Here is the input.
Amino acid sequence: MTRPLFLDAATMARLLGPAAVADVLADALRAGLEPDAQPHRTAVPVPAGELLLMPAAFGSFAGVKIAGVAPGNAALGLPRITGSYLLLDGTDLRPLALLDGAALTELRTPAVSALAVSRLTPADRPLRLVVFGSGPQAYGHLEAVLAVREVAEAVVVARNEAGGRALAGYARTLGALARTGAPDEVAKADLVVCCTTAREPLFDGALVPPGATVVAVGSHEPDARETDSTLVARSEVYVEGRSAALREAGDLLVPLSEGAIAADHIAGDLAELVTGRSLPSEDRPRFFKSVGMAWEDLAVATALYRAAGSA
Here is the structure.
């Protein structure tokens, strides 16, 4: 049997950029992939944190990601997210490739957000961007947003001041006007991106202007959230898949438990945005909540495998 191809983080970043990955996800949805039909994520508590098992199959490929979430790793100077992705031939389940799972997550999560941003924000003018966080996902999301939209100014809001200054500096190397700021700067934002490990709301949702878009990607736990019930109740809400969001997204489940919203508050999913079946309004904030789904990993891993074969 042929030895599986190994794709490390550097190779993956070289093969596909954020805009190309967003296109891969859009193509999968246009091809008929139904996010809610895919298997659920399994979370297994372990002493260091939790193990996540994420299988998926579509077309001629199948795959599974085993990811570790270790909150204590930061104090050890190690990544919070670890893991590997095994890509399989969908017809006989032969292993085709082994990918760095953390790098795959860092590549696909911003691309999911970029795909949503490309459908939920105007393309005819530069956007005022506020980014919460200064970790790997904040960097990835900055790059992904810049790949699909022009940014007038990027404001970084980070608990780690040195990390926030570093991210703002990096944004300037990419040609964006950037600085650090405070949470209340969402009042002047066109786009707010939350990519933190916060378990409580980061800002006052009443401040977000009508027509602005908020993207939250930091949590997939039912009791953790980055946004408050005020924002969610005011907003037109979009998700990757309804069943996954209503199972895992604390940003929605907490407002639901408080009675701030009803279960039918979700306006649409990513597939409906991509295919045009759902069209965002302009008189309310738009909120996209991502929890990360296995079909996304499979679509991106498949594209990386094909790109490596033709490189």
Observations:
- The chain has a mean pLDDT of 94.
